[in-house]
Amino acid sequence: MASAAKEERQPVLRPLRPGPEWPEQERAEQLARGAALKWASGIFYRPEQLARLGQYRSREVQRTCSLEARIKSVVQSYLEGVKTGVWQLARALNAVQETRETLAQARGLLQDMAEAAQTLEPLREQFAKHRQLQALSQLLPRLRAVPAVVARTQILIDTQQFLEAYVSLRELEQLQEETWEPLGGLELPVFEGLGPLAEALVQAVEVAAGAAGQLARDDPALLVAAVRVAEVEAGRTVPQGQAPRDWRFRCLRALQDGLEQLHFGTPLLPGPGALAGWLEALQVALPAEMATAEALVAPCCPPHYKVVQLWARTLHSGLRRCLHQLLEGPELEAADAFTLLHWTLHVYLGPEMMGSLELGSEADVSHLEPLLTMENIEQLETTFVTKVQVNVTQWLQKALDGEVADWGREQEPDTDPSGFYYSPMPAIVLQILEENIRVTSLVSESLQRRVHGMALSELGAFLRRDHLKGEAVAPHYVPYLLAALNHQSALSSSMSVLQLDGLVSGVMAPVEAILDELQRRICRLVLEVLMAELQPLFEVLPSRQWLLSSELLDEVCKRTAGFCRDFWRVRNPAVQLLLTEVERTVVLQYLRALMQGRLVCRGAEERAQAAERLQQDAAQLRELFLGLGLEDVQCVPVLFALRELLKLHDPTLLSLEVTGLRQQFPDVSEDHVSALLDLRGDVSREQRLAALSSLQIGPQPSPSAGRRALFSLVPVPTPALSSCLPSGPCA
Fold first, then answer.
1. What is the distance between the terminal CA atoms of the chain, rounded to a whole angstrom?
2. Strand, coil or helix: what is 93?
3. In this structure, what DSSP letter does residue 644 have?
4. Coiled coil where (predicted)?
5. Strand intervals (E) in 543-604
6. Which of 303, 334, 461, 564 could form a disulfide with 387 if both were Cys (CB 3.0 to 4.6 A apart)?
């Protein structure tokens, strides 16, 4: 029956015939025919091969039969496969229809079960309530005791019985956890006080940890209990769904906060002027605190707390924060800025504090951030230099005011045991500057260099101040000028105390230049007084009275010697410089008088008298200055040279004398020579022009024979055009 049914279900296959729906078959036949025709034409092209035509025909027939048999076999196999596939598709269609019917039946059953489940929902709710009531009935005795246990736990916390309070708290929390599952996570009102109770306990632990140093000395058991509570809580397994309580972190933070507040609380910040005392107190307190941590606190805490290292980091960071707050406040005074720099850079890490050998390696803070950043150090150095500069300016001004006040006295300047004019002002000035430079070496080289630069700047400004008052103000004007010259010499000779080791050359040059300028100015003021005293005498020189008598120059020498009587109170080499300038000034006044054209010799006799007078005056002036102590007379020889010019009998030889004068004194000009020729009174125009021409065509002065300017400082009246060279400056 089954086989019959199977055969009935198999579809009936119909033979396939080529037709219009198989264009490939027709094209294949055409290609095959063409190929066969091509092959036959190639085989039977020659007549001798036609004899074998029967063999070729039988062979092709066999081949054709074989191909047809193979094609039939392939087509038959293909048809059988198609037949089997169609049969399987039919069976699958039947199975799908049966499955669809079965699913429809299952859907109906599920709908019936859902309706039945809805009718059981009230029963399920009643069952859950029954289980909750059953659990509550079992836990009811323990739940009734919860308020009393909470109150007792709070008392334990208040009395600092931390371990007992923690045990009681954990029992309450375990009871709360036991009620969660049977109650489906329902929170009972009786447990609402557990959160505040736990917070009260951890706050009490924090308070105890914040006073760890004091408790380690007075009640170490209490500190141990507080730390143990934090550690037990940190090791507890937290139920799923609950956030962990990081009591260990809060305990460590309380240790740090308490330590910082103890030593660096904001109300304890030092006020102005109290910084040194505050730092000295820290210098004692911080090492003592580290010793307490190592000896007392560390045994009360677990090893992984690393108490000594924690103490060192906390004290360091607290001190750093406090110092930064201090620098953000009002600007420090110079003493406070210096004290803070020295303390932070040298004392804090030194053997007196954190670098003490009594502290272990855990107390090393050298690898932490420095107390002061480079910007902080720069700020403090700038503050110190600025404040010290103001103080130095005030101190130097006071010293200068005292010196100026001395100028108004009715007595001469004070003298030292050797008789030289003396004042303590140079020593005071150098002491002020040197002490400020020296003390900064205790801080840093950079600060010392900055203060050194400031000191040189202030010294230069001090030396530029005009405190040399006029003669009408000071009764003893010249002696005080001489005393000021000694001051300048003392400063110049003592500048080495301001020199720093390793300082580049040339740093002291500006101050040295100012000292030289001050020396020249003092000499100029002294010479102005001398010039004012000698001016009336030189106004009548030369004259015929001058030719006949030495009284005029005697008076000049007398006044000059009287003016220089106190020069011996000036120290070398300043006294030599001063005498040299006096000699130069007197000679310049003499030359200036000669060039004014007040006298013209009327004959050879007067020229001889003038030459003799120049020789006697030169000798007298040389004797004067050598007697005053001048070691080298430099300007008086010009009078001997002029004497030769006047002494010459033959005017035609004047060119030689002028050339010699030019060799000795290169700054002599045509105007000067012309004025001297006018003094002779016997020089013709041609002789004058020849003498003046020798200045241009004669040999030039040797550079090695150069002297200080002399003739160039002597003005002469403008000569007549007839006495000028065509190319001369007066032409």
1. 162
2. helix
3. H
4. 89-116
5. none
6. 334
